[in-house]
Design a protein that fits this description.
The protein is mainly β and about 180 residues long. The chain contains one helix and 19 strands. A six-stranded parallel β-sheet has the order 1-3-6-9-12-15, with no helix packed on it. It has a five-stranded parallel β-sheet with strand order 4-7-10-13-16, with no helix packed on it. Strands 2-5-8 form a three-stranded parallel β-sheet, with no helix packed on it.
């Protein structure tokens, strides 16, 4: 994905970031509050590409602001971590963490509108809550992102369950139509 900004060596705490793709050549750290500003865009997304580790300090948080008219229901936050991620005690996090090695959530750390997925190691939990529901009441775009036809625009992909519901609904419509409108 095309990178909007390289934040290598910058602590995420205290920053306000607009929708986009952000890169860290090595580790990323969050001490305090990271504000993700949707700028009233209904399809805002943030992708963090982190070369090695992601670590938060105790009590840190990721918050969404200036949501669109849908209250953030279509916003997506993705953390691609090159090795391991650790959310320290009582961190209030947002988004999907995809780590190559492992993920640790210390006591009371939470993830809203996301998942914790480790490819080669364990996801270790200690009295945590992980929810695919965004804090503003919607499911958010936990399904993923894809490029538009111009190769630079990223568009959210709905949750797989939404696609399954659509396909099963269309199958019912087709079956109903065949039953009552069959051609001899």
């Amino acid at each position: 994905m095309p990178v909007n900004s390289n934040l290598t060596g910058t602590d995420l705490g205290g920053l306000t970031l607009a929708s986009g793709v952000y890169k860290f050549n090595s580790s990323a750290q969050l001490t305090g509050t990271l504000t993700l500003d949707a700028q009233h865009n209904n399809n805002a997304f943030w992708v963090f590409q982190i070369g090695s580790t992601l670590t938060t300090a105790p009590g840190s948080s990721v918050v969404l602001s200036n949501l669109g008219t849908n209250d953030g229901r279509d916003d997506g936050v993705y953390w691609q971590v090159g090795s391991s991620a650790t959310l320290d005690t009582t961190t209030a996090f947002e988004g999907n963490i995809l780590a190559l090695a492992s993920i640790t959530l210390n006591t009371g750390a939470t993830i809203a509108n996301g998942r914790a997925l480790a490819r080669n190691g364990a996801v270790t939990l200690d009295d945590n809550v992980i929810s695919i529901i965004c804090p503003n009441g919607g499911p958010g775009y936990s399904g993923g992102l894809t490029y538009d036809t111009d190769g630079t625009t990223v568009v959210p992909v709905p949750l797989p369950g939404a696609l399954l519901l659509f396909v099963s609904g269309m199958g019912s419509v087709f079956a109903f139509g065949r039953r009552f409108f069959s051609v001899s």
